[in-house]
Amino acid sequence: MAYRGFDAMKIDTENRKPRVAVHKFSSCDGCQLAFINAGTDLVRLYDLVEMVHFAEAGQLDEDAEVDVAFIEGSVSTPHEVERLQRIRKRSKFLITLGACATAGGLQALRNMADLDEYVTGVYASPEYITSLPLATPISQHVRVDLEIWGCPVNGRQVLAAVRSLLSGVVPVLERDKVCLECKRQQTVCVMVAKGEPCMGPVTRTGCGAICPQLGRDCYACFGPAEAVNTDSHAQHLVALGLSHEQVAQRFLFINNGAPEFNAEGLKWRDEG
Amino acid sequence: MDEKREIRVDVPVLARVEGEGALDLLIRDGEISELRLRIFEPPRFFEKFLEGRSYTEVPDIVARICGICPVAYQMSSVHAFESIFDADPGPWVREMRRLLYCGEWIESHSLHIHLLALPDFLGYPDAPSVARDHPAAVQRGLALQGLGNDLIRMLGGRSVHPVGVKVGGFWHAPSSGQAAAMLERLRAALPEAAELVHFVAGVTVPDDPQEFVSVALRHPDEYGMNEGGLVTSDGLEIGINEYEKYFAESHAPHSTALHSHYFPAGDAPHGAGRPYLVGPLARLNLNVDRLPAGVRENAEAAGLRFPSANMFHSMAARAVETHYAIVEAIRILESYAPSESPAVTISPRPGVGFGCTEAPRGILWHRYEADHEGRVVTARIVPPTSQNQPRIEEDLRRSLDAFGLDHDEEALRLRAETVIRNYDPCISCATHFLRLQLQRD
Question: What was the ipTM of the complex prediction?
Answer without folding.
Answer: 0.93
